[in-house]
């Protein structure tokens, strides 16, 4: 196959939203339209067993939230679509951040009644900083929501981004009948089919001047629509792909993931307009282009024990350049060692499909022999670059952990180390005690609960954990000063997995106190608030 064509037809994106905006439902409907599933679960069915096809782990089913991200692939009208699913819960924001590193664009999902919510805002900023093109889908149009013009306004006021509505809702709030497409100037009117969104929606499409469309709409709705269009054309922005690609303009769509209203139209326009796989920056500041012949990829997610019957660990790679072929050996840049990318798989719902060949933009899961960490670069031997580092979020919640049963220390340590390689937790050690003790740092409370759950379920170890009073972790420069660090009475000196010194304190004041008392002591800068989601 022609690699250029293969790159051109790929779309790799993530859906970002505040919990409950309908991300799981929209993902499912994209799969329905993509032919990857044939019948979507109805709202009722989903309520009784609240998990979608993208949920894997037992804990997700129990809690009904998407804890881990998954990757789903399907073909649609010649496109190869890779959807990166991101956890909605804010305690897993770091996982979301890493997933966005693997995306070339993002779909921002908004609940029509609620508008821009806190988590939408944070995730928007992450995308914006990475200059990812953002497409907006306003969901839940089957019920009363805010006025579409107000929502456009809110995007500009709250997020600072102008919107260009491509699809515009036709009808009255709560009873929309269809969408008007501003690019090809057609109206699509939907038929009620009584399937509650389980099947694709039937519709009639025609030009606005079409007598049949006019009649279907009725004089009043027709006039309202014409007025809206006139207003949008006069007062709104011109459509500019350049601005979209620079993340300055967001193409906007309206619909209902539940009833399938507007989903097909959104999917088709989105695939047409969104970018194909893009280059990635190296630590050295060079760009690796997808068209380059040499294979390169990075690890953005590690998932252990996805299938209890396998008990294995899978690393998810985003291919940046070159062609992946089954059985190939590449260089693991961090260790300089050759690794065979064994058991390569792609993911379709709960099925794993073996991969023979994959191209830039694709996500593949490979068997992880235990050497991969989040952010690792894989490249062909002889290459020298590393992809730019993933930002590490300083944890804000800390606990000292040990196995309840000391005979299970081995499993406990294995679990703690593997979960930290996965990026599920950060692990620190206290060196000065007789027995090495582990301190776990997390960004959100729920991560600690998941740690406890997973250690029990996957490593058969119960955890004793003692919460520590600290809320700030700062990596230290000037490590030679560390031995005689003064003023750390209310803090703790620990070491991360690369043995770098880190101080744990409970406020900024304590950090200032330390820098005042230790000449030359410096802390590594932390991601800014906007980056920190
Ligand atoms: P999330 O992944 O973003 O968290 O959202 P999810 O798809 O689980 O949807 C959250 C709720 O919103 C679900 O209600 C879902 O059916 C509903 N929903 C999604 N899209 C639409 C839509 O277009 N219109 C309407 N009216 N509802 C929609 P639920 O299953 O009843 O769960 P819950 O409300 O009991 O949590």
Characterize the structure shown.
With 533 residues, this protein is of the alpha+beta class. It is built from 14 helices and 31 strands. A hairpin with a 4-residue loop joins β8 (175-181) and β9 (186-190). The two termini are 40 Å apart. Bound molecules: guanosine-5',3'-tetraphosphate (G4P). Guanosine-5',3'-tetraphosphate (G4P) binds at residues 17, 19-25, 43, 46-47, 88, 139-140, 142-143, 256-258.
Q: How widely separated are the two ends?
A: 40 Å
Main CATH class of the largest domain: Alpha Beta
How large, in whole angstroms, is the Cα Rg? 25 Å
Q: Determine the mean pLDDT.
A: 85
Strand order of the largest sheet: 2-3-1-4-5-11-6
Unreliable stretches covering 5 or more consecutive residues: 42-56, 63-69, 529-533
Number of domains: 3
Question: How many DSSP E strands?
Answer: 31
Stated plainly, the CATH topology of the largest domain is called Rossmann fold
Ligands in the model, by name, code or SMILES, are:
guanosine-5',3'-tetraphosphate
Oligomer: single chain
CATH superfamily of the largest domain: P-loop containing nucleotide triphosphate hydrolases
Q: What overall form do the CA principal axes indicate?
A: globular
């Amino acid at each position: 196959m022609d690699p250029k064509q293969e790159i051109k037809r790929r779309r790799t994106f993530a859906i970002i939203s505040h919990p409950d905006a309908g991300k799981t439902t929209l993902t499912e409907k994209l799969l329905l339209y993509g032919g990857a599933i044939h019948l979507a679960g109805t709202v009722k069915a989903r309520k009784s067993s609240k998990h979608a096809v993208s949920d894997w782990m037992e804990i997700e089913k129990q809690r009904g939230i998407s804890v881990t991200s998954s990757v789903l692939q399907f073909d649609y009208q010649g496109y190869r679509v890779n959807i990166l699913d991101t956890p909605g819960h804010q305690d897993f924001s770091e996982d979301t951040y890493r997933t966005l590193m693997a995306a070339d664009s993002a779909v921002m999902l908004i609940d029509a009644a609620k508008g821009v919510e806190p988590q939408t805002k944070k995730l928007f900023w992450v995308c914006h900083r990475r200059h990812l093109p953002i497409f907006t889908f306003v969901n839940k149009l089957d019920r009363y929501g805010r006025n579409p013009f107000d929502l456009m306004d809110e995007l500009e006021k709250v997020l600072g981004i102008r919107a260009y509505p491509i699809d515009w809702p036709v009808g009255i709030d709560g009873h929309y009948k269809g969408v008007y497409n501003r690019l090809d100037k057609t109206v699509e009117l939907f038929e009620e089919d009584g399937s509650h969104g389980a099947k694709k929606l039937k519709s009639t499409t025609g030009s606005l001047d079409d007598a049949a469309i006019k009649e279907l709409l009725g004089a009043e709705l027709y006039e309202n629509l014409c007025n809206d269009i006139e207003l949008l054309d006069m007062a709104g922005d011109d459509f500019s792909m350049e601005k979209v690609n620079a993340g300055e303009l967001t193409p906007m769509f309206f619909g209902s993931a539940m009833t399938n209203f507007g989903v097909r139209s959104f999917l088709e326009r989105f695939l047409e307009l969104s970018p194909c796989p893009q280059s990635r920056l190296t630590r050295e500041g060079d760009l690796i282009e997808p068209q380059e012949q040499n294979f390169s990829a990075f690890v953005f997610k590690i998932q252990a024990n996805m299938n209890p019957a396998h008990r294995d660990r899978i690393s998810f790679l985003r291919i940046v350049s070159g062609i992946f072929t089954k059985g190939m050996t590449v260089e693991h840049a961090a260790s300089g060692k050759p690794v065979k990318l064994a058991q390569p798989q792609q993911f379709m719902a709960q099925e794993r499909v073996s991969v023979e060949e994959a191209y830039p933009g694709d996500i593949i899961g490979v068997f992880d022999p235990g050497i991969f960490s989040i952010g690792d670069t894989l490249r062909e031997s002889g290459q020298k670059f590393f992809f730019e580092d993933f930002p590490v979020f300083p944890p804000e919640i800390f606990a000292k952990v040990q196995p309840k049963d000391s005979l299970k220390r081995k499993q406990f340590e294995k679990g703690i180390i593997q979960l930290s390689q996965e990026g599920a937790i950060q692990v620190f050690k206290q060196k000065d005690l007789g027995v090495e003790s582990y301190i776990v740092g997390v960004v959100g409370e729920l991560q600690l609960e998941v740690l406890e759950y997973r250690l029990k379920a996957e490593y058969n170890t119960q955890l004793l954990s003692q919460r520590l009073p600290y809320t700030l972790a700062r990596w230290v420069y000037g490590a030679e000063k560390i031995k005689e660090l003064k003023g750390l009475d209310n803090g703790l000196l620990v070491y991360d997995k690369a043995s770098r010194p880190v101080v744990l304190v409970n406020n900024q004041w304590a950090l200032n106190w330390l820098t005042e008392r230790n000449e030359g002591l410096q802390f590594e800068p932390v991601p800014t608030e906007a980056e920190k989601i």
